[in-house]
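During the second year of the project, the team shifted from modelling isolated chains to modelling whole assemblies. The rationale, set out in the original proposal, was that interfaces cannot be judged from single-chain predictions alone. As a representative example for this report, we include one of the complexes processed in the last quarter. Its constituent sequences, exactly as entered into the pipeline, are reproduced here:
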Amino acid sequence: MDYLGAERKKAEFDVEDMKIVWAGSIHAHQLSDRISKLVANDPAFRKDDRTMLARKELFKNTLRKATYAWKLINELQLSEEEASKVRFYVDEPAFTDLHWGMFVPAIKGQGTDEQQKKWLSLSYKMKIIGCYAQTELGHGSNVQGLETTATFDPKTDEFIIDSPTLTSSKWWPGGLGKVSTHAVVYARLITGGQDYGVHGFIVQLRSLEDHNPLPGITVGDIGMKFGNGAYNTMDNGVLRFDHVRIPRDQMLMRVSQVTREGKFIESDVPRQLLYGTMVYVRKTIVMDASYALSKAVCIATRYSAVRRQFGSQNGGPETQVIDYKTQQSRLFPLLASAYAFRFVGEWLSWLYTDVTQRLQAKDYSTLPEAHACTAGLKSLTTTATADGIEECRKLCGGHGYLCTSGLPELYAVYVPACTYEGDNIVLMLQVARFLMKTVSQLGSGKQPVGTIAYMKRIEHLMQSHSDVQKPQDWLKPSSVLEAFEARAARMSVACAKNLSKFSNQEEGFAQLSADLVEAAVAHCQLIVVSKFIEKLQQDIPGNGVKQQLEVLSGVYSLFLLHKHQGDFLATGCITPKQASLANEQLRALYSKVRPNAISLVDSFNYTDHFLGSILGRYDGNVYPNLYEAAWKDPLNDSVVPDGYHDYIRPLLKQQLVPAKL
Amino acid sequence: MDYLGAERKKAEFDVEDMKIVWAGSIHAHQLSDRISKLVANDPAFRKDDRTMLARKELFKNTLRKATYAWKLINELQLSEEEASKVRFYVDEPAFTDLHWGMFVPAIKGQGTDEQQKKWLSLSYKMKIIGCYAQTELGHGSNVQGLETTATFDPKTDEFIIDSPTLTSSKWWPGGLGKVSTHAVVYARLITGGQDYGVHGFIVQLRSLEDHNPLPGITVGDIGMKFGNGAYNTMDNGVLRFDHVRIPRDQMLMRVSQVTREGKFIESDVPRQLLYGTMVYVRKTIVMDASYALSKAVCIATRYSAVRRQFGSQNGGPETQVIDYKTQQSRLFPLLASAYAFRFVGEWLSWLYTDVTQRLQAKDYSTLPEAHACTAGLKSLTTTATADGIEECRKLCGGHGYLCTSGLPELYAVYVPACTYEGDNIVLMLQVARFLMKTVSQLGSGKQPVGTIAYMKRIEHLMQSHSDVQKPQDWLKPSSVLEAFEARAARMSVACAKNLSKFSNQEEGFAQLSADLVEAAVAHCQLIVVSKFIEKLQQDIPGNGVKQQLEVLSGVYSLFLLHKHQGDFLATGCITPKQASLANEQLRALYSKVRPNAISLVDSFNYTDHFLGSILGRYDGNVYPNLYEAAWKDPLNDSVVPDGYHDYIRPLLKQQLVPAKL
Ligand SMILES: Cc1cc2nc3c(=O)[nH]c(=O)nc-3n(C[C@H](O)[C@H](O)[C@H](O)COP(=O)(O)OP(=O)(O)OC[C@H]3O[C@@H](n4cnc5c(N)ncnc54)[C@H](O)[C@@H]3O)c2cc1C
Ligand SMILES: Cc1cc2nc3c(=O)[nH]c(=O)nc-3n(C[C@H](O)[C@H](O)[C@H](O)COP(=O)(O)OP(=O)(O)OC[C@H]3O[C@@H](n4cnc5c(N)ncnc54)[C@H](O)[C@@H]3O)c2cc1C
Ligand SMILES: [Ca+2]
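Output from the structure prediction step:
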């Protein structure tokens, strides 16, 4: 029985068409649909017991799944695209993520042609398993401060990799702790007594015969992380080198090289080439944000339609909690954000292609902007997603706190995205630097490009007044854009003005950094708002689909405007009256979302397996399944718990013996 | 060695005196100090392995600790106050929390004298163990909608307790799943065919001989909850009744009774008496918020002084991350909040005494205000604390994600405080109702009292202008109070105006509920701000102690003002210029906090055991201890992991067999 059937009938758009929009194309939709079902229907990928497993069991189970998935990929002769979807829908962090997502790309990006030939062919067959060993106990954000050394020994034509201090121990790399046979290790290159900074080296860690660490290598897991299940399926590791020797040709030499004589030379391949990879990785993170947030929103939306509380009239059913405006005002902006992040992720795919093409044509002019924009979007979307998942959990009341809701694990597994690939605050400070540079160059003839192009109209934006007069005016994309542009521009300019009061710019930047981060956030929100609006300028087929997206775009921007109205008002971009009209329009939009809410989350096309939540079940049959699941907890193996005779009974019987328990 | 010694030398106040302020009195300080050390020094209370234990082991271990603590309490003949401190510092949720915190108070509050005599004497000796069984699978917030029935059978002078539907299953009560022998069960009282709503009943659940559930009772644990360790030490339970009979005198009959004949009568004891308990429980929750937040802040502050990243000059040490203004602007408001919540908790103790005295004098006039204010403060402080703990975790970068940081477990164990004892949004809506009532009665002669007394000056507050002209003006308590009062008053009045546009008030309240919650938050923030300021009007001994608290009070209010500047600006309470001056002053205050930060968290006087965090160690010796702890993970029991031969080796050797794994 479909307990949400009545909800589904209310939809004012074609869900099948929206599924295609969400997936990005018919092809992508069909692919996702096929692979997600393949995974969901295979009992080998069961995950509903994950949060109950102790670490060792959990980890062994992940090894089983990863190997099984690989076998499946080979047996079914899946393409690279299909294989990566299999890993995605298996939905369990594993060493394979780092092997495919970091080790292989690092070699592709930084290895010479010969190096690629040798190492990639081994990697593609998984004859070796690799990880990405950059972070150390003492250094994460500050990569240039890494302490591991790679000293060239011209006598033997080798590098000696060493961990000179405790804090130089590699710490965090995923897949390192128990699985990887190899790593790309980042270390300070020292040759001829000189330190040439941090470079990457391919280092074998474990014997390919018996998996024991090679001589001079100490390696292990760094221990439990946040949550049950969650990221504990991953063996984030610690690694120490005691003068480990590797051949010279295992330094990744695409960009710089060390000769047989120990001479350090920079190749003519520009360093900027490495930026391509970075844009690619960040694009993936933004897409992952939209997936994670959409999962949480799907769970909270369905459960909010199932859950009823208060408001029964004459003994009739109570009110679905999704009908409470407070619930809507917390939930619907997150639903809109999931779509917004999905579209900005799509746009980042375009940016990646654009950057790649320009790099090939040796056009580096857009790189600073691409760098700032991807850094900011990574930071913005991951922060919002982490907060959003947790809000979805709270929206489910007490039951959201149960692991069977899926939300605790989703949160715990997601949050490190705020930290890895750049701490979100550190990234926003980079955006702020770019903004300050842009402002300082205004009028210098250097034209702002891409997402910062609005700064060209700085004079207008500094003194424009919003033309909004009634709530509906806030539905006009031009009014929304103008307000967000003016706010971002004015906040940047205000920071620049304050900065100019300092004689020492660095000191000023440090003092004002909290304000600078706020300006950077304003800039990044503008990007997301504008990319959503641009998306709507495209042709979007399907009955009612575009209309729904227009509503969601409105929700996204007006929710942000309301949340940050202090920015808009302080900079005088809008009046208090206009702020209040925006809020009024926002309320009206929530009512438009309401009948479509369930179908808007159905459009994600997630299987119950992928969602992993009893509260989020497609059929809405929550209560009997919650009840059934409870009995599976190990504590329920026996009616009288282990420990009764030793602890509870003596307590009740007042027979506590003074001996140490 | 004390790696934070240099930091401690910077303090501009007397830490020992601040410890007394934090504890509340010399007596309280000495008590906490003594008991926390007693617990910390007893290896039986070790908890550093907690996040690694599987559920059964974890739970058995909790039983062991709880029983051991009880033995200790008896052997050392500890007072009730001391005993509760022991439980507090053992720092592990257990059935005892519910026994002492809910079961006993429920009987005290709702039982007749005879009932108290009988059941409390059993409870005080723990000859029975009780829990509080209110929430059901289908009803939490809406207590009046509970479905469990207690039908009086005049033939046998018994109540028949029954779970007529699946959703009527009791679900969530702590201590119920595996331990409790008894419960206070809330059920609909039915007698003479009529439903008299929800009342409490004492029901025995398990045999006192062999702990088996009594006939007609199905009971078990509801399964894993958020996080490792955390609240999984608690057996939140599910409970079903199949026509279970209890004697009539097990209905809690202080306020209403059922006679031998089955007649329902309300006693002359006013229902309001129950409010006293509620104020008491909420006071405890607010105090717990300050403890939880202060633990997180202590960890993040110490680690931020240990952690260095970037900014090394000429090979010198890098910058302590606590010196970054972004770090300060995230951390110091939380430090200030911990103190703010501590003082508002202290004030709630006074309120509790006041309410109790008034109840005895049959003065119910302040009850609505006390009800609204405690509901709002519970909601405000628990939401801020949950968010704050997580922010502290992020402030620790990658290492905050490790369980050895203590922060993941602290978060996971804390967050349900946002949900239990009233969902935080539902509570804020109650505050909003009270505010709307107050506004509607303005001018009616009914004088607003207590925390809402500022509404008496509504005419002034509606049109006042802040007199702030320079940053330092924001240090004047009167300016701060005036701004917060004006903001709260104007937001309430704006809501009331919008409400009046609806012909149906209930409909209007529902439509505007998101705005109403914002007004309620503004009111509650004002309470915290004003109680902090009132605290500073007291005599506070100790070198520099008061000065530090003044700085923190400033940080707390100006941080809120900055965060919510949209409210202040939209209501015209302050100008954009004044908002910017506040921000400027806030920055200056951060610099004042900086040298005192470590000592301000030392003042919490937490043992390393209680903190449970390697990052937060008193001695700051973080790295060697992180490194050592890693090796204790079960995954490191063997160098080559379990699963190598089955999964990793076949993968590497390309020897995957097509058979199902
Ligand atoms: C689950 C997980 C998986 C990971 N996987 C890998 C992996 O596979 N390989 C790998 O090499 N690494 C990995 N990492 C490490 C990760 O990349 C780092 O944790 C990350 O770069 C953050 O660095 P940090 O931990 O040193 O944070 P820190 O830099 O120590 O941050 C601490 C605090 O200082 C602040 N701060 C730091 N610098 C500044 C500044 N200049 N200005 C203002 N504030 C500042 C930060 O905002 C933060 O609040 C992983 C981490 C996690 C949590
Ligand atoms: C760890 C833990 C321990 C607990 N211990 C106990 C215990 O010992 N004994 C016991 O009896 N219970 C216990 N509980 C249950 C707890 O009291 C309830 O979970 C709590 O009251 C919230 O109710 P709910 O779960 O029904 O949430 P719901 O009411 O279902 O909330 C779901 C959503 O609906 C919204 N909502 C609900 N009503 C309204 C409304 N009128 N207007 C607007 N929005 C609304 C909420 O804001 C929330 O977003 C415990 C719960 C937890 C998580
Ligand atoms: Ca506790």
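Residues 128-269 of chain A form a domain with the Butyryl-CoA Dehydrogenase, subunit A; domain 2 fold (CATH 2.40.110.10). The pocket of flavin-adenine dinucleotide (ligand 1) is lined by residues A 98, 132-135, 140-141, 172-174, 231, 236, 416, 419-420, 423, 425-426, 429; B 307, 309-310, 321, 324, 326-327, 395, 397-399, 401 (CB under 6 Å).
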